[in-house]
Design goal:
The protein is an alpha+beta fold. The protein has helices spanning 5-11, 17-25, 87-90, 118-127, 145-155, 183-195, 226-270, and strands at 3-4, 29-31, 34-35, 42-43, 50-52, 55-56, 65-70, 99-101, 109-115, 133-139, 159-162, 176-181, 200-208, 211-212, 221-223.
């Protein structure tokens, strides 16, 4: 059966569907030795030899899922044209076919999801901009209550101070803060803090959707437990359903407005001489 190359590559765990499209456009995909650059191209995974980025797309037996505590000053990709440290340096000893889902800033640390499940990764990519993420931040100086209210209004992000374990007496002059936001709001938050004179000094992601960093040490990774994979799948399914409901409601609202306008116009045609009952202002 013919399938799109993106699907074959993603299922083989070489890359997500989105990244697979980039590989196709850049001429890094071959079918039976012939370079293919058309996104709509298809192949038969049972008969054709599909190669992407120098690797043969083979059907994996079981997908793998890992959680990583990315260190600071590591690019959240498997390669970097500028020669900086990448996830490949951190993931030594991990078998091939694993790739990151989403990205984390170069100067940030914290939780990242790694998998060989290209189909799940593609679904997460589509919802990543709205996936709730919890960060711990350290900024220059100390935010006042008024400044935190400004951040809430400008960046739509609620911040709260974190008390250090075992701390007693007065709070430190340079405390940590916790904030929940999405990818789309992260840069907005940085700009808002910078404008207030409190640039971000440290940023750590401690939660990604239903997944938590916990006590995983920086630079270490671990396989996800079956219950965590199940939680992630349920989370994605609910996100898809919410999105479908919102699209449906939006369509209903857009269709209702023209209908009301047509009804008023039709009533006016039937009673052209009728005056408005609204009192004059």
């Amino acid at each position: 059966m013919l399938e799109r190359l993106q699907k074959i590559i993603a299922r083989a765990g070489i890359a997500s569907r989105r990244h697979a499209e980039e590989l196709i456009r850049s001429g890094q995909v071959r079918v039976n030795g012939v370079v293919v650059t058309e996104l709509g191209a298809k192949a038969d995974p049972q008969r054709d030899r599909v190669e992407a980025a120098g690797r043969i797309a083979e059907r994996p037996s079981e997908p793998s899922y890992f959680l990583l505590h990315k260190p600071v000053h590591v690019v959240s990709t498997m390669s970097d044209p500028e020669g900086r440290a990448t996830l490949r340096h951190v993931l030594r000893g991990l078998s091939g076919g694993i790739f990151p889902v989403g990205r984390l800033d170069y100067a940030a640390s914290g939780l990242m999801l790694l998998t060989s499940d290209g189909q799940l990764a593609d679904r997460i990519f589509k919802k990543s901009s709205r996936m709730p993420q919890v960060y711990w931040l350290k900024v220059a100086g100390r935010l006042s209550d008024d400044e935190m209210q400004q951040i809430r209004r400008q960046a739509h992000a609620r911040m709260r101070r974190l008390r250090a374990p075992g701390a007693a007496g007065s709070e430190p002059a340079n405390p940590w803060y916790e904030v929940e936001l999405s990818d789309a709001r992260r840069d907005l938050l940085r700009r808002a803090l910078f404008a207030l004179g409190h640039p971000v000094e440290k940023m750590k992601r401690v939660k990604l959707g239903p997944l938590e960093l916990g006590d995983l040490a920086e630079g270490r990774y671990r396989p996800m437990e079956p219950r965590e994979v199940a939680q992630l799948r349920r989370f994605i399914e609910k996100a898809v359903l919410r999105n479908e409901r919102e699209v449906w409601r939006s369509g209903q609202a857009e269709g209702a407005a023209p209908a009301r306008q047509e009804k008023r116009a039709d009533r006016h045609k039937r009673h052209p001489g009728r005056k408005s009952r609204r009192p004059a202002r």
